[in-house]
Write a structure and sequence with these properties.
Chain B: Pfam families: AIRS, AIRS_C. Chain B: This is Hydrogenase expression/formation protein HypE. Chain B: It comes from Rhodomicrobium udaipurense. Chain B: One of its GO terms (biological process) is protein maturation. The complex is a heterodimer of chains A (about 375) and B (about 350). Chain A is α/β, with parallel strands linked by helices and about 375 residues long. In chain A, about 40% of the residues lie in helices and about 15% in strands. Chain A has 16 helices and 13 strands. In chain A, strands 2-1-7-8-9 form a five-stranded parallel β-sheet, with helices on both faces. In chain A, strands 4-3-5-6 form a four-stranded parallel β-sheet, sandwiched between helices. In chain A, helix 1 runs parallel beside helix 12, helix 2 runs parallel beside helix 16 and helix 8 packs across helix 13. Chain B is an alpha+beta fold. Chain B has two domains: about 160 residues, 2-Layer Sandwich (60s Ribosomal Protein L30, Chain: A); about 160 residues, PurM-like C-terminal domain (Phosphoribosyl-aminoimidazole Synthetase, Chain A, domain 2, Alpha-Beta Complex). A seven-stranded mixed β-sheet of chain B has the order 8-10-7-11-9-12-13. The longest helix of chain B is centred in the middle third of the chain and has 18 residues. The radius of gyration of chain B is 22 Å and the shape is globular. Classes of the chains: A alpha/beta (about 375), B alpha+beta (about 350). Chains A and B meet through helix 1, helix 2, helix 5 and helix 16 of A and helix 9 and strand 13 of B. The structure holds iron/sulfur cluster. Iron/sulfur cluster binds next to helix 15 of chain A.
Chain lengths: ~375, ~350
């Protein structure tokens, strides 16, 4: 039987591995941060580590939408489902993220709250149309990739005059997070692998500021394991040659200006928040979106007068440090002991894009062997 | 003309109307439902006796017994429905002991308001599956729950079978060095079902692989009576099933990703949804573990059967106190194949 994965072809992988081994200068270390959880997942799922020389290492970044949402916002979602009695629609992973007191949307659901797992915002719209007597709230999370569909859904709801649909908006922005990592968080890495899907929307231009200001190469890469390896090779070449540029490994999708049409729709519906709290990064200026006043009727925060209180992470959970690239999952004393994907303590153990979950699910044998 | 027949019209006409509470009350309506629907399709001498139990002679030796509750959304999917699935699933559970399945029972929990035409389709499909497999449904039961307290229809099937002499197949018998075989491509059933979920919209031609595997097992056991483990990787897929075996046998398992058969459409759907095919359910595939010197013989016996033409050797059992399932990826790296926490979920980013 034939298999379709042209991007995972082993011969190509070996070729890239050989090139990396040849070009990585033995005397120096290359520490490369992959921003996106999608990359982290690919690295672990395909065992990309095994193909890298010892002096080339990956540092896992904060680009996992489920991971970076702070506890206060999950508490808000619980409040919507339990106190306001809405039908709360959420992506599956979000249901399992621990909120304050180790509660979660999944537990609320078991106790009778009407929480529904959806695959997209369109499902939430459909539920709203089918339940005209109930309030339906979509728990929107994600980076620039998931923002345009939410914007389109809000436009649709307005056009249809849907009275019972609103969005609890938690959309966040990649460039602000990257900027924060390099300034306030004092991240020490040599180069970045930039997001693929996000960049297809925002383009590669927003990263030019970083290469100029911070002199770190940024290579935008697809989510396939070969994309990640090729991007690592491109970053190593830049470092060897003393360059710091935005390069685009993912030319098959990403352009310099991104998707203008998507950005126009997003601008019509959303505006920047002055600040937004991220798990791990704290309050980051200009790092998130909120719904514009012209769509206020569809903004769950306004409709239900939601106030977010910041809440501490679980004791001993190192998610914050991990999301900043300062620690590895195995540095957490709860890793695999109090905390596993079946019973997660922090958000990084929930999503398949979270670093702790990826380590545990795919890479655990490395620690056991060590 | 009876009440039911009046409502249903003539016996073989398409049924109209819906399940009502009275169908489960045990009175005349129940009897009529059994007569006009269940017994009409599932006809066999033991069922026709109309007793609350089926009585039959048994052979000497070891018997196996298994039961399985079937709930699935949607009830009808490409390549099958809950009826055929309920028959295949239980036959397969009997067969995974190396046994020859003899009889099945079926219990239905129906939700008030469920269309009788759909019930008729489901029971007809069960009958066809059981007839094709040569394993009759010899006793059964029906209950009705109020609207909102069920999900259309739940079916529980129980099966019994006899194990041929000299066969001893069990999940705890894998030994380091044993070879792991798989009967065909993975993920077909789960992807076929997912493609018809109302909240997921993608097009695929994939059909469920739902099938009764007992004739395949009979050929395999005849060729290699010393097969150590047989199991069908249903819910949780290949990943969960191999972990179960590794735990039970206290061995590690090493897989070769490139050797695992998968259809391009299934692979593409998994890519699209961000799912790992290793965790997608199958309903017509089996895993076999056998001593290394018997592996080729077993593989040949499998490939000679129409349900295992794409059978492959996909890995081996190893000495490993952690009982980890590991895989050399198609890409040349290594990873664990862990249990999955919860259901497989499409990615967000
Ligand atoms: S292992 Fe668990 S507790 Fe530790 S950092 Fe990761 S998510 Fe937090």
């Amino acid at each position: 039987m034939k298999f379709v994965d042209e991007f995972r072809d082993q011969a190509l992988a070996m070729g890239l591995a050989a090139a990396i081994a040849r070009e990585a200068v033995p005397a120096r270390r290359y520490s490369i941060m992959e921003f996106c959880g999608g990359h982290t997942h690919a690295i672990f799922r395909y065992g990309v580590h095994d193909l890298m020389p010892e002096n080339v290492g990956f540092v896992h970044g904060p680009g996992c939408p489920v991971c970076v949402l702070p506890i206060g916002r999950i508490d808000n979602a619980l409040e919507l489902a339990e106190e306001h009695g809405v039908i709360l629609c959420s992506y599956g992973d979000m249901l399992r993220v621990p909120a304050s007191k180790r509660r979660s949307l999944l537990k609320a659901k078991a106790e009778g709250a009407d929480v529904r797992m959806v695959y997209s915002v369109d499902d939430a719209l459909r539920i709203a149309r089918g339940n005209p007597s109930r309030e339906v709230v979509f728990f929107a999370i994600g980076f620039e990739t998931t923002t345009p569909p939410t914007a389109v859904a809000l436009r649709t709801a307005k056009a249809e005059g849907l009275k019972n649909f609103s969005v609890f908006c938690n959309h966040v922005l990649t460039p602000a997070a990257l900027n924060h990592l390099l300034t306030a968080a004092g991240l020490d890495v040599d180069a970045f692998i930039g997001p693929s899907h996000v960049s297809s929307v925002i383009g590669s231009r927003p990263y030019e500021y970083f290469t100029e200001t911070f002199h770190r190469p940024v290579v935008i890469a697809g989510f396939e394991p070969l994309d990640v390896m090729q991007a690592a090779l491109m970053a190593i070449r830049q470092l060897n040659e003393g360059r710091a540029e935005v390069e685009n490994q993912y030319i098959r999708v990403v352009t310099r200006d991104g998707n203008r049409k998507a950005r126009t729709i997003v601008d019509e519906v959303f505006e920047r928040r002055e600040g937004f709290e991220w798990r791990g990064l704290g309050a980051v200026p200009d790092s998130a979106l909120r719904i514009r006043d012209s769509y206020a009727a569809f903004d769950a925060e306004k409709r239900f007068s939601i106030v977010t209180r910041s809440a501490p992470d679980a004791k001993s959970c190192e998610c914050a440090e991990i999301l900043r690239g300062a620690k590895k999952p195995v540095d957490c004393k709860l890793f695999g002991k109090g905390c596993t994907p079946d019973s997660p303590v922090g958000s990084c153990m929930v999503s398949s894009e979270g670093a702790c979950a990826a380590y545990w699910t795919y890479g655990r044998f490395r620690q056991e062997a060590a | 003309m009876s009440v039911i027949e009046a409502r249903f019209g003539a016996r073989d006409a398409k049924l109209s109307g819906a399940v009502e509470m009275i169908h489960g009350a045990g009175g005349r309506a129940t009897a009529e439902l059994i007569r006009t629907l269940f017994r009409r399709h599932l006809d066999n001498p033991l069922l026709a006796q109309g007793n609350d139990q089926a009585a039959f002679a048994v052979e000497a030796g070891r018997m196996v017994m298994t039961t399985d509750a079937h709930v699935i959304a949607p009830l009808f999917f490409p390549g099958g429905d809950i009826g055929s699935l309920a028959v295949h699933g239980t036959i397969n559970d009997v067969a995974m002991a190396g046994a020859r399945p003899l009889y099945l029972s079926a219990a239905f929990v129906l939700e008030e308001g469920f269309p009788l035409a759909d019930l008729d389709r489901i029971v007809a499909s069960m009958a066809a599956a059981s007839r094709a497999a040569g394993v009759p449904i010899v006793t059964g039961d029906t209950k009705v729950v109020e609207k909102g307290k069920g999900d259309g229809v739940f079916i529980t099937t129980t099966g019994i079978g006899v194990v041929p002499e000299g066969v001893e197949i069990s999940g705890d018998r894998a030994r380091p060095g044993d070879v792991v075989l798989l009967s065909g491509s993975i993920g077909d059933h789960g992807i076929a079902v997912l493609s018809k979920r109302e909240n997921l919209t993608f097009e695929t031609e994939i059909l469920s692989d739902s099938a009764a595997l007992h004739t395949l097992v009979a050929e395999m056991v005849a060729a290699v009576p010393g097969i150590r483990v047989l199991r069908d990787p249903t819910r949780g897929g290949l990943g969960a099933t191999l972990n179960e075996i590794a735990q039970q046998s206290r061995v590690g398992i090493r897989l070769e990703e490139a050797a695992i058969p998968i259809k391009p459409d299934v692979s593409a759907a998994c890519e699209l949804l961000g799912l790992d095919p290793l965790y997608i359910a199958n309903e017509g595939k089996l895993i076999a573990i056998a001593p290394p010197d018997k592996a080729q013989l077993l593989l040949a016996a499998m490939r000679a059967h129409p349900l295992a033409r794409d059978a492959a050797i996909i890995g081996e059992a190893t000495q490993d106190p952690h009982a980890f399932v590991q895989m050399r990826t198609r890409f040349g790296g290594n990873r664990m194949v862990d249990w999955l926490a919860g259901d497989p979920l499409p990615r967000i980013c």
